[in-house]
Amino acid sequence: MLYTYRNRNSDCPYEMALGLVSKRWKPRILAILSEQTLRYGDLKDALEGVSDKVLTGALDDLTRDGLISRTAFAVIPPRVEYALTPQGETLLEALEPLANWAKQENGR
């Protein structure tokens, strides 16, 4: 079976799944948004050390992949909120065994 991920074809579902969270900040963004919906500035504060360019790119990728939602409010000043989608929640659930494995291996 051939899987399509962002216009790239792969016959490996592992590659497709890990490709969704392969950039440095994506797993942290998903974990933070699993706890609460946040505005851009609050999310940036929670991710100490991330640049605006990198954060914007990661948020765009995660939104395009359907893992987070972006809600813009028609108010002045403009307000945008990011939240985890049900698809993002299931991805985090699927990553839990991998995270547990990493914790165990890190303790060796």
UniProtKB/TrEMBL annotation:
InterPro entries: HTH_HxlR (IPR002577), WH-like_DNA-bd_sf (IPR036388), WH_DNA-bd_sf (IPR036390). The keyword DNA-binding applies. Signal peptide: none annotated. It comes from Marivivens niveibacter. Keywords: DNA-binding, Transcription, Transcription regulation. This is HTH hxlR-type domain-containing protein. It holds the Pfam family HxlR. Residues 12-108 form the HTH hxlR-type domain. One of its GO terms (molecular function) is DNA binding. Gene3D superfamilies: Winged helix-like DNA-binding domain superfamily/Winged helix DNA-binding domain.
